[in-house]
Design goal:
Blueprint lengths: L1 H20 L1 E10 L10 E4 L5 E3 L5 E7 L3 E5 L6 E4 L8 E3 L3 H6 E4 L2 E4 L24 H4 L6 E4 L4 E4 L5
Parallel strand pairs: 1-7
Antiparallel strand pairs: 1-4, 2-3, 2-5, 5-6, 8-9, 10-11
Length: 165
Amino acid sequence: MFGRITSLFLGIFLMSGMLFAQQVTVTGRVTDTPDGSPLPSVNVAGKGKALGTLSGPDGKYSITVNRSDTLAYMFVGYQNREGVVRDQTGMDVALEFSECSMKEEVAIGYGTVKKEVATGPVYAVSAEDFNHRAITSSQELATSKIAGVRITGADAMIRIRGKSS
């Protein structure tokens, strides 16, 4: 009886070790292609995964993923890059600026999407929109510029599409 219980615990211990052995912590640095300067706030995530991390002010990041995952590096205005983890624990990546991605992507609360596949309305407010009247406060800059956006109060409370949004 004691031997069976010991075997059971030993089996569970070995199985849990095998499960954790499938994950690896990857660290690295994300830089700009021409001069190698660090890129802060680059989104680093396992491809198809909801959670990821951001690179720090020095371009460095650390993320724990499965060995079979593909890491995706995304930054607005730069071409996305991918790299398969396998057994690597260090992955440095250089991203390249892309003017066409600036015109085709829209920054949203949790990433970027191509403008034509965005599910909500997309508005752009440019400097020319602000030159038609006298502005007495920064809050007045965006007031009445975008449908459904209301800016009120001295501390500029922004409400989009009413209270329930």
